[in-house]
Amino acid sequence: MKDYITQLDKGLLPFIKKPCIFIGHSLGTAVSFALAKHMVDKKNKNNFLKLLLEMGRGPPHLIDPDEPFENMNDKDLTAELKRLADPSQREIYDYPDFMAMILPMFRADSRVAGQLLEQTPLDIPIICYGGDKEEKVDEAFINRWKELTTKHDLFRVRMFHGHHHFQSECEAQVLQALQEDFRKIISL
Description:
The protein is of the alpha/beta class. The protein has helices at residues 2-11, 27-43, 74-84, 96-113, 139-142, 166-169, 171-186, and strands at 20-25, 49-55, 126-131, 156-160. The chain folds into two domains: 2-66 and 118-186, Alpha/Beta hydrolase fold, catalytic domain (Rossmann fold), CATH 3.40.50.1820; 69-111, no CATH class. It has a four-stranded parallel beta sheet with strand order 1-2-3-4, with helices on both faces. The model has no long low-confidence stretch (mean pLDDT 89).
């Protein structure tokens, strides 16, 4: 995670000069939270960060209920990726050449995602979205993100009909929710 944050510190943070929102999905939730914490601790730019929107993963200070990808053999990892995928897009995982290319990336990301982050709450609102068909990352687990914000009055969880990639399964509903949540935060 340190390497990710170091690169983002150099390549992204110098350009944040206006209010912004960080959106993370899956591994990206841990990265966005770690980067937000870095902004607050090291860069004193927390006044620019208006919202963390976290999707498809429990909070990064708790152990992920899914088995780490780096511990799986190719066959099991491919099956797990298919299970997590939007059902209309699962056939992509049937191509061995494609899988040989992406499996190492998923394993590397899994090593980063598996690093637990400290539980220090941020003074930034957090809103979480999840898929109601995701077996292990259920609404109760997603609600644990509330432990990572001091803005409890602005915290909310929205569950959508779908799997891990619910945003492609119910795109219109997710876009509508994003508009509503962004408007609410921006109006504060």
